[in-house]
Amino acid sequence: MSIFDQELKRKGTYSVKWDMLKDVFGTDDLLPMWVADMDFLPPDAVLQSMKKRLQEPPFGYTFVPPETARIISNWLEKRHSWKTSAAWYMYSPGVVPSIATAVRALTEKGDQVLTMTPAYPPFFSMVEQNERELVLTQLIEKNNRYEIDWDDLSEKLKHVKMFLLCSPHNPSGRIWTEDELKKISDLCNQEGVYLVSDEIHSDLVYRHAKHVPAALAGDNAPHIVTFVAPSKTFNLAGMQASAIIASDEDVRKKLQEDQGKQGFFTLSTFGITAMEAAYSDGEEWLEQLIDYLEGNLEIVRKGIGDIDGLYLMEPDSTYLLWFDAREKGLSEDEMKEALYQKAKLGVDTGEKYGKGGEGFIRMNIASPRAMVEEGMARLKKAFG
Ligand SMILES: Cc1ncc(COP(=O)(O)O)c(C=O)c1O
């Protein structure tokens, strides 16, 4: 039995995924396979570090020590061959707050900000809620894979101030190649556009694929800002700890100014402890996790063969799977009825991921295998 087969009690723990079903889906009797966290314990090394820290009260004001940057930097070099300097690091309670900070710090009200669609919804809302104009470039599907519309992207980059990139891409799990990233970085550089790369999913990579940091592909050019976090990789979203990496001092000053305006000063004691422990001692656990997710993905590939008109977009990365259900010809409401009322399966329908997401479904497979099997049975019930 794998450590990931263990079924955890998550109901009643203030879990968004398990305890907010009624608020989001209108009913709480669904199998929750939506929000992007995992139904797995984090690495034991993280739990031990946190227990040790708990024995060292009080929990007064703290700061992120220089050691934290060195630990993350070692991780990025080891896992992704990206050498970063400790001076490039800043911190943030989350990647979504970092997106908002970058938008506010590096663009003005009314400026245009470009992103791809479909996309993780805060890529839209953080731009619009900060009163910038959202510009979209729609991904093109070719051979069951998303491709960049280069003509459209190049044209739109002429007018925008920032390009928000999701790398790897949520919701499809597509990894952008080194050549693609270099081309994106060169185009942004040429047009004087900031390239802001959300790499929160970059450690959850399937065995056939390889993530390349955008800043590595772009030679750490000053216009590139990167976000990384242990939250997805090690299931620590509730610890609210993430990093912003920017090689340019002037860019960092602007980002710091915005964080200063919010009164943001530091991460929490347990956020720092968990982040350091995860990046220092979590690698072996991550290797096991990736193997387990490969197994879950195989269950899905087998199961989907039995469901007519439903297709998996093969992921390179992430435990979030993107299914194409357009052949079913159902409206969004009919799809919700089939999934939530008939099959009792709590997955996201694609419309909320923006243009191009209509008719798709996003399902989270970071759960014990038995639950993934049940999820596939329910998907079949919804559409079979
Ligand atoms: C691409 C992407 N960015 C950011 C986040 C959330 O980041 P955080 O919880 O650090 O704000 C998610 C969560 O699903 C995500 O998929």
Structure description:
The protein is of the alpha/beta class and 384 residues long. It folds into 2 domains: 3-42 and 283-383, Alpha-Beta Complex (Aspartate Aminotransferase, domain 1), CATH 3.90.1150.10; 49-281, 3-Layer(aba) Sandwich (Aspartate Aminotransferase, domain 2). The protein has helices spanning 16-19, 21-25, 44-54, 66-80, 95-106, 122-128, 150-157, 178-191, 214-217, 230-233, 249-261, 269-281, 283-304, 332-342, 369-383; strands at residues 31-32, 89-92, 112-117, 133-138, 140-142, 145-147, 162-166, 194-198, 224-228, 242-246, 311-313, 320-324, 345-346, 348-349, 360-364. The strands form 4 sheets. The chain has a 7-stranded mixed sheet with strand order 2-10-9-8-7-3-4, sandwiched between helices. It has a 4-stranded antiparallel sheet with strand order 11-12-15-14. α4 (66-80) runs parallel beside α12, α5 packs parallel to α6 and α5 (95-106) packs across α11. The longest helix has 22 residues, at 283-304. Bound molecules: pyridoxal-5'-phosphate. Residues 36, 94-96, 120, 166, 170, 198, 200, 229, 231, 237, 242 line the site of pyridoxal-5'-phosphate. Its cofactor is pyridoxal 5'-phosphate.
